[in-house]
Amino acid sequence: MIDAKRRTLLKGSLGASAIGIAVSAGLLTPGTVLANWPKAAFAATETDAALNDLLGSASTETSDQVKIKAPDIAENGAVVPVTVESDVAGAKSIAIIAAGNGTPLIASFDLGADAIPFVSTRIKMAKTADVIAVVQTESGLLSAAKPVKVTIGGCGG
Amino acid sequence: MAGNIKIRAKSSNGVTTVKALMSHEMETGLRKDKATGEPIPAHFIQEVTGKWNDQVVMTAFWSGGVSKNPYLSFKFNGGEKGESVEISWVDNQGQSESGTAEIS
């Protein structure tokens, strides 16, 4: 009887500590999975694959209705200011891609009804490459690219 | 790690421009600790929501490719002086933060 109880106690405490270890190792972190976050698109290692996962298509049309502002030379790849603006009607979302990064998709912005197609942020670039902006409209994907020379990469350690 | 969000919202000619500065490490998960050689776990903001008078104007999905202490600016039609703009974020470890500002 005493032995049996001791066994239960042992089992119980072992189980509890295993869960504790899993939580501290980040395996069971609550809220890790955000329903809308496009996980596959962000994990994609090619621009086309990322666009396919994100927008269902990688066929973009270069358009002067999409304007992308980024420096010609970025001395620090860890902080590259990028501004994307468009005057196209009915823009639904804007994606920012650093073509030379291991996982090229940096960010995707869903635009609400009142939003103007304009976003500005700062991104990391691993090496000299194009920064690509893709604007999703009713009739397809419009894009613009801007080459940025990176003298120190911003993704390595 | 998580700090407050600095927000400026300015209305001009019927358009409100919002500028925000968030405080976050934005760790990609690819870097290694130089002293120990151990990989530094990914820790970055995944989702940012911008609201005007409690109505969502813009939702951003981010990877670890957005720079440390992220800057974000967006614009929307409408917005009067004194109305509120709220920005909130959630990161991949489930932490979150939000802040509000009055449109000026």
Can you walk me through this structure?
The complex is a heterodimer of chains A (157) and B (104). Chain A is an alpha+beta fold and 157 residues long. Helix content of chain A is 24%, strand content 37%. Chain A is built from 3 helices and 9 strands. Chain A has helices spanning 2-24, 39-43, 47-55; strands at 60-62, 66-69, 73-74, 80-86, 93-98, 105-111, 115-123, 129-137, 140-150. In chain A, the strands form 2 sheets. In chain A, strands 1, 3, 5, 6, 8 and 9 form a 6-stranded mixed β-sheet that branches. A 3-stranded antiparallel β-sheet of chain A has the order 2-4-7, with no helix packed on it. In chain A, strand 8 (129-137) and strand 9 (140-150) form a beta hairpin. Chain A starts with a helix and ends in a 7-residue tail after the last strand. By secondary structure, chain B is mainly β. Chain B has one domain: Sandwich (Immunoglobulin-like). Chain B has no helices and 7 strands. Chain B has strands at 6-12, 15-21, 45-52, 55-62, 71-77, 84-91, 96-102. In chain B, the strands form 2 sheets. A 4-stranded antiparallel β-sheet of chain B has the order 4-3-6-7, with no helix packed on it. Chain B is elongated. The chains are: A alpha+beta (157), B mainly beta (104). Strand 6 (105-111) of chain A pairs antiparallel with strand 4 (55-62) of chain B.
Pattern of helices and strands of chain B: EEEEEEE
Shape of chain B: elongated
Q: What is the CA-atom radius of gyration of chain B, in angstroms?
A: 16 Å
Integer average pLDDT of chain B: 94
Per the CATH scheme, the topology name of chain B is Immunoglobulin-like
Number of helices of chain A: 3
Distance between the termini of chain A: 58 Å
Class based on secondary structure composition and strand pairing of chain B: mainly beta
Evaluate the radius of gyration of chain A: 22 Å
Protein name (chain A): Thiosulfate oxidation carrier protein SoxY
Domain Ig-like SoxY (chain A): 52-155
Organism (chain A): Lamprobacter modestohalophilus
InterPro entries (chain A): SoxY, SoxY_sf, Sulphur_oxidation_SoxY, TAT_signal
